[in-house]
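We read letters as residues; the integers encode the fold. Take this protein.
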Amino acid sequence: MAKIDIISGFLGAGKTTLIQKLLKEALKGEKVVLIENEFGEIGIDGGFLKDAGIEVTEMNSGCICCSLVGDFGSALKEVVTQYNPDRIIIEPSGVGKLSDVIKAVQGVAEDVELDLNSFVTVADAKKCKMYMKNFGEFYNNQVEYAGSIILSRTGDVAEDKLNESVALLREHNEKAAIITTPWDELSGEQILKVMEDGNDMVKELLEEEEICPVCGGHHDHEHHHEHDHEHHHHDHDEECSCGCGHDHDHDHEHHHHHDHDEECSCGCGHDHDHHHHHHADEVFTSWGKETPKKYNKEELDTILQKLSKDDSYGMILRSKGILQTEDGSWIQFDLVPGEYEIREGSADYTGRICVIGSKLKEDELEGLFF
């Protein structure tokens, strides 16, 4: 029976980096298939994962919210029957809702034997507050449904800022194990153990007292297995789709605490009286280009500085690309709000650029790069 690990996380959180670490350090000898579901027109990551001997199914036809029921379900069944893997890692779109991914996998599990092994969310320790405020409908969902939360870039954050991020995450998920140690101080095996087992210390104490970690009641040890992953499926249907977490039974009380013209936490500006449920493609857009143009490294550095700090191109949440330089070498870039990285890359069939964000200004982006 194939284990399913869902590794979610907002745009640029570090999902692919985590997956690479797990493949290299913890999953050697296992037959692993990775299913990526990219939001946007261009998938940049597939190449080096294929180089590592990992089968990659990229689905660039749309956001995960839209493609889950059809493409995703059939792709997952095909992967199970064709490859018979020990483990399937699903890397959803950075703007996908984890609850949608879990629901889709459960739907496939009715027809194919699958073990829903872990639901993980990777979160950038520096950006939790900003993403919760602006895109809470999507971001908070990824946090709420996670069995464990793996914070990235914790080594670059002051302790008080890290504590603030953990406190914000705890407001949306009281029980998940949260990894705050920098990844380079942990082995892939340690991270995988937290993903699969959660907070062992709490579990051990509860088991000593024969207290069920899910419902809090006193049970024999056999009863623990009946719950399995049920705690991931708490009824979130009653939760307001804006991500503010109130129960619809208390709508009238809750509205007294809101200015009715207040902008929804998802950043769409709708009134809280209207409990809309958004698909990712209603809020996020992508712009992508393929180009043979050769770039000067200093010129590209200037472009990325503007893109990471200037909101005149829309709210840029992620940009990736691989481009050839004037001296014939290839470079890859990776950008999230406020920061970017340029590194050496290997030749691709053509230069490629992808930008993802909210309310993108495509003409301005075209002018910036070309």
